[in-house]
Write a structure and sequence with these properties.
The protein has one domain. It contains twelve helices and no strands. The termini are far apart. About 40% of the residues are buried.
């Protein structure tokens, strides 16, 4: 174990730790969404508080994962039990953000130079190129949004026989805003947008931005159409957001995964859906290269 640590670049280890912390913070917000949205409560107007006694949660107790451990799973004021799902979601989101950092910044499976000679971390630290960092931030937010919507779908299924049922529109809160943000980022940073696959229509200074917007929009529309056919409103939101971030081939892969997994075991189906989304975002460029190669073979090239 010690030899592995000695062989691991220090800056990469620090980056993974930072990515985990960022993801855990996003996971903490996801917990707020998961608790309040089904109850029709605002996720922005009220501070964090104990669901049992209403006491405000102190800043030191609100640290993702560690806050729950320091409290030993109980409210500091009333002693009521705090669900262990809170630190689990935060830990899982932290791990997913670390995975995206590995892909986009460290391993080079995400954004690299054209010849693959420099990974995102080298470009960031040596040349001040912020695009790999933007790619990581975009992909981690998209993935954690997918996790949140997936858990909401699980909760809705569990509560379907109770009086506290989540409406279909509550299965993917913030979907429209996130989709618009992904389109904006893809347009401003064409290098991290879905590969254009023929969307470069005209040679002009702005053609790369227009092509990036077209590719992201095509993925978004493909996800909306195919996701609605696949199943729940959450499937439609997940496929649309994934398509906007990684392009229409990612929608095709997600469709195959969704159709291949039986929904009799909802937990397994949702888990595989999240794993597929993580794999697509971690290997988004190799995925597109594979589709380009397949299309070239099909065309006799």
């Amino acid at each position: 174990m010690m030899l592995w640590l000695l062989g691991f670049p220090g800056e990469s280890l620090m980056l993974v730790a930072f990515a985990f912390a960022w993801g855990a913070v996003l996971g903490s917000f996801a917990n707020v969404v998961l608790h309040r949205v089904p109850r029709g409560e605002s996720v922005v107007t009220a501070g964090s508080h104990c669901p049992a006694c209403g006491a405000a949660i102190r800043p030191r107790d609100n640290i993702p994962v560690f806050g729950w451990l320091m409290l030993r799973g109980r409210c500091r004021d009333c002693g009521s039990a705090i669900s262990a799902r809170y630190p689990r979601v935060e830990f899982a989101c932290g791990c997913l953000a670390a995975l995206m950092a590995w892909s986009d910044l460290i391993a080079g499976t995400g954004l690299t130079t054209a010849d693959g000679s420099r990974t995102g971390l080298d470009r960031l630290l040596s040349f001040g190129d912020a695009q790999p960092l933007v790619a990581w931030g975009l992909h981690s937010v998209v993935l954690i949004a997918i996790v949140t919507w997936t858990i909401l779908e699980w909760d809705a299924a569990a509560a379907s026989g109770s009086s506290r049922e989540t409406s279909s529109s509550g299965l993917c809160p913030g979907a429209a805003g996130l989709a618009a943000a992904v389109l904006a980022v893809a347009t401003c940073f064409p290098a991290i947008a879905p590969p254009h696959l023929g969307f470069t229509i005209i040679e002009a200074p702005w053609h790369r931005h227009a092509a990036a917007f077209a590719a992201a929009t095509a993925g978004l529309l493909a996800g909306r159409l195919l996701g609605g056919w696949l199943g729940s409103p959450a499937d439609r939101c997940i496929a649309a957001l994934l398509g906007a971030a990684a392009g229409w081939p990612s929608v095709a892969v997600m469709a195959v995964v969704t159709l291949a997994v039986p929904r009799r075991n909802l937990g397994m189906a949702l888990g595989i859906k999240v794993a597929a989304a993580a794999g697509i975002l971690a290997f988004w460029q190799p995925l597109h290269h594979a589709f380009v190669a397949i299309r070239a073979l099909a065309n006799g090239g």
